[in-house]
Design brief:
This protein is of the alpha/beta class. The chain has helices at 21-32, 72-85, 93-121, 134-147, 169-172, 174-181, 196-202, 228-232, 258-270, 286-295, 310-319, 334-341, 372-384, 386-400, 406-430; strands at residues 2-7, 36-42, 63-67, 128-132, 151-155, 186-190, 210-213, 244-249, 275-280, 302-306, 322-324, 346-349, 364-367.
Amino acid sequence: MRILHISALPVWSMDGKGGMPSLHETLKGHARAGHELCLVLPQYNLQAPKPEHTCVPPGQPWEVVFAPCRWVPALLEVRRLASRLGGGHGPPYPLRWLLNLAMMLLLTGSLLAVALRLRYRLRKRFDLVYAHNQYAAMAGWLIACILRVPNVTRLYGTFLADLMRRPLVWLRYPVSAAGYLVPHDLLICANDGTRGDEVARRLGIDLARFRFWQNGVDRPVSLPGDSRHAVADKAPANLRCNSRWIISCSRLANWKRVDRIIRALRICRCKGCDAQLLIVGDGPEADRLKSLAAEQGVARDVVWFGTVAHREVWRLMGLSDVFVIANDVTNRCNPLYEAICMGLPVVSVFDPSTQDLLKDGENALLADREDETRLGEQMYRACTDAELAAGMREAQRQRADTFWTWEARMEVEAAELARLVRHRHTAAGSKSPGRDTRQPARGVQEPGVRRPGYRNHAS
């Protein structure tokens, strides 16, 4: 098939090295299935606090076309000025509502213009439109209507689950709701702990067109046999090879709560453990977190790696002793899957989204979200109790065997897309052209045999 991918999210937001592995793996899976892909991206990274061009590494097996989006610098400047009114915590709600809606509508126009140019000026034909993220959902639907092909919306989590009991959620958060409510032939939502299936039900989404799938995870076939000393030669100067290494991998955003981990590290160090926190990732909270480490007296014990290539993340995990994650919204995310696959003991917080993955005292040590003292004590236990750590590593290996690989995950999706397009062609041959809304789907369950790594919330 020829698939037109449109995305509001940059695939390689972190200096071209990473940023959205699940988006990248989706593209790779479609290419691996033999499809011809054209990816349309905004010229600017819409997630950045100031205008910066979207980075695309060379050698990708798909065509990349940029939507100019010349309005982005002006909109980002308005957002920066509006943030001042919110006391540095972002724009006040009414302004944020307007800015988010304006961004979605402007982006819809920009993506639509590029798609029309590809179709009518460059004579490119497509069999399917695949929109990534709620900001691109409306553009995906409009383009599919014009091209008379099916459209798929892909969502990478949501924050609406805890807000669904409030009245008029769709009006109060129109952009987030648009990911669900904009018409689609298929809606794929990541099972990442944000309870997107609950949101779908409360918004009345047709579950025959809904898929709720966990991401895949692929451990590298081989890892470089580097020792800690070899890594230290290229790492920040304060990395100590003989310390216990506690690794955290995430974008440095407020809800990731790396500040909670830094304060817990101080507790771990005060109990006498020679531990260092390796922070892999970058983001808007970086400067504030570095200041916090200095205030807590652990500046020499926090090693800032910044953005690194995904393969380097695997290597650092392979050399580390403990993985720590303490997010606010959900802790069910790709770095956790990868840490489990590497057999790392996990220190985290009690979180309903991970209750099937992390068992306190078995493969993880958990603490209440706001109990940073207990979190630090659990870090100390994981670093100093060798027998406990060995048992946790063995338990992780057993869990890792239940995960989808990305290849298996994308094989299931590729079959769904083929069925979708095949059904459209069959319907088009049996009646006059137009959008056919019937879809022989199977609800939120996976097609065919139940595969590991999937949580069925249908019941």
